[in-house]
Write a structure and sequence with these properties.
Layout lengths: L2 H11 L2 E2 H10 L9 H13 L3 E6 L7 E6 L1 H12 L10 H7 L6 H29 L5 H30 L13
Antiparallel strand pairs: 1-3, 2-3
Helix pairs in contact: 1-4, 6-7
């Protein structure tokens, strides 16, 4: 999945400004797609250049003019081609898990701190998804509900695992952080 596919799909519902698209990325897609603000505008320019989207300039009194984008028939065709492709394997990129993997090279208090911080981060993310679920309950399609429920399940499972492992980590007497060796 590419950012262009996500933008085209987002524009299928209705025309949007780049800022509106950014809000969808931050709000709706936040737990399963990492699309940065810096990716949106270059992608919009490229899609417009390729004829996948059209741009209308909306004149606003007392504010800067707003660019509103809408998908073209060519863009719909490309998006449908994306939907027809085989689903790609999920790619997980987690700084926390990478640090845990190399956790034998730090002291126990650092490990405990990392795990506690990750639990708090996951709890906040889970709370946000529960809030979204309540806010969007009447507006969600079944496929959208599946996306939300998978996110809720993942965060809940991660929190449960991290809490259990934190207890075990705190019970370990020694051995953590003793593998730090460097060359002189």
């Amino acid at each position: 999945m590419k950012g262009r596919d996500v933008i085209l799909g987002t524009l299928l519902k209705h025309s949007m400004s780049g800022y509106d698209i950014k809000l969808v990325f931050e709000d709706v897609f936040s737990h399963f797609f990492d699309g940065s603000f810096g990716m949106i505008y270059p992608t919009l320019r490229q899609l417009e250049k390729e004829g996948m989207i059209d741009k209308d300039i909306v004149i606003q009194e007392g504010k800067p003019n707003k660019n509103v984008y809408s998908i073209t028939k060519k863009g719909v065709k490309e998006f449908n081609q994306y939907l027809e492709q085989n689903i790609q394997k999920d790619v997980l990129c987690s700084d926390f898990l990478m640090r845990m993997y190399f956790g034998e090279y730090v002291d126990k208090p650092t490990l405990i701190k990392w795990v506690e911080e990750e639990i708090n981060t996951k709890r906040k993310s889970l709370e946000q998804l529960y809030t979204k679920k309540a806010d969007w309950a009447q507006k969600m399609s079944m496929p959208q509900e599946i996306c939300l429920e998978v996110g809720i399940s993942q965060y809940a499972a991660q929190i449960e695992t991290l809490e259990r492992k934190l207890i075990e980590l705190k019970q370990i007497k020694e051995g953590i952080g003793e593998n730090v060796k460097g060359k002189d």
